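Escalated from tier 1: NAP holo job.
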Amino acid sequence: MKILLLGANGQLGHAFMKSRALALRGEVVPATRQGCLDGRPCHSADLADTASLNALLDRVQPDLIINAAAYTAVDQAESEEPLATRINGHALAVLGGWAAKHHALIVHYSTDYLFDGTKAAAYGVDDTPSPINAYGRSKLAGELALRASGASHFIFRTAWVYSPHGRNFFLTMLQLAKQQPELRIVNDQFGTPTPASLIVDASLAAVDQWQLAPPAKRISLEGTYHVVSDGVATWHDFATRIFRKASDAGLLQGTPKIVAVGTGDYPTPARRPAWSVLDNASFRHRFGFELPDWRDGLDDTINKLYSEVNGPTC
Ligand SMILES: NC(=O)c1ccc[n+]([C@@H]2O[C@H](COP(=O)([O-])OP(=O)(O)OC[C@H]3O[C@@H](n4cnc5c(N)ncnc54)[C@H](OP(=O)(O)O)[C@@H]3O)[C@@H](O)[C@H]2O)c1
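Tier 2 regenerated the structure:
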């Protein structure tokens, strides 16, 4: 199987690149905007340039397209919505059109920011999206374009993604904890921190089952799922546990004081949903895949980071 990995330098893309499980499934062809960070040979791919995207697909002829690339600058998207929509929306029509014609499977990622955050319970996959910012609208456009393309696909909506690599809240907190004795952290937005490695494992479990299924049954597996850890946290809860666990593991000398603040104390160009908890039950049941509590995922990520810094424990 030939696997085209778009966005190989991003947080999720990097987790795929590191995954031995992905390499075992076929020939991985990474594609990025500026060459692979780990020095591997890399195809050039710009999702804003649809003509070059088609040429890349024709050259690579993938059986599986994993789209980990996206315009993810949530605040900047407010002033660049057309560009965000081209990358997160229109590009999916191109990828989907090619995949439908060539019988390739697409794995695509979407977001909790599709929802407005006013629901009193976890959002199900069939709840009506109602994004409150430009990034959310651009990601919704991508979902609609991919579904309309007729390609075999999985759309995995995820949230609050973090890993030991890339730009994310987890690493930012560890960095700030070394620089500042006191941090003000938002305590009125609710979601579920989800490790990138969990999304990789869940995605591959679904792809495996799709490939093993008889062709007529594959369509019943395809579609949209929520791939997030279990449980609910605020950014304040997340930061508190990051500091405690990192300190226990010896990654931090002491923990900063954390002051809980409201979203209103931290104005940003883009509005964020106050409640973006996603119900992951349909993924768990359909694929028999466990999505552990966010605290377990965090503890595991801290252990991995400890091993990277200090070498593996015996
Ligand atoms: N991070 C989260 O909390 C979160 C939450 C919900 C959903 N998601 C979704 O999960 C997926 C992966 O996100 P992530 O956290 O891995 O994001 P990320 O770290 O920002 O990575 C995104 C990657 O996309 C690439 N990219 C941006 N514009 C591109 C373009 N025009 N052409 C080609 N590549 C382009 C970036 O390339 P450069 O390296 O060149 O900038 C970057 O490597 C995305 O679909 C995102 O919407 C993420």
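The longest strand covers residues 105-111.
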